[in-house]
């Protein structure tokens, strides 16, 4: 239980940061970039390539933002469904165990679950197999 609580508390802060970053990006591309575009067009000079790319992203977001959101949501649901299949679960868990910080933590958590289940079974009189056939 202590390990689970520490994992949950350690992932709350990065999740909040990721959510704020996504919302900030949406606000910047949807509202701020179009305001600056008027300023840049009034200047009349050629814009550098990075600025042109950001302007293009702003245009794409304002024109196709709802469509992009629906597609991202649909892809997320499909990936989630696939990840719950046996092949997807095997792929995800093998990648999870190879991650630098998360892998050892996930392994310890699963070992904790296994040990607790085994301890409950043995404590309630379920005989342990002594030989494998």
Briefly summarize what is shown.
With 133 residues, this protein is mainly alpha-helical. It contains four helices and no strands.
Give the fraction of residues assigned to helices. Answer: over 70%
Separation of termini? 35 Å
Secondary-structure element pattern, one letter each: HHHH
- Number of H- or I-type helical stretches: 4
Q: Whole-number radius of gyration?
A: 25 Å
The class by helix and strand makeup works out as mainly alpha
Mean pLDDT rating: 85
Strand count, sense and barrel status of the largest sheet are: none
State the shape. elongated
DSSP strand content = under 5%
- Number of E-type strands: 0
Q: Which parts are unreliable, with pLDDT below 50 for 5 consecutive residues or more?
A: none
Secondary-structure map with pairings?
Blueprint: H1 2-43, H2 49-83, H3 86-98, H4 102-123
Helix pairs in contact: 1-2, 3-4
Q: Overview of this structure, please?
A:
The protein has 133 residues and is mainly alpha-helical. The chain has a domain at 1-63. The protein has helices at 2-43, 49-83, 86-98, 102-123. The longest helix has 42 residues, at 2-43. The protein is elongated.
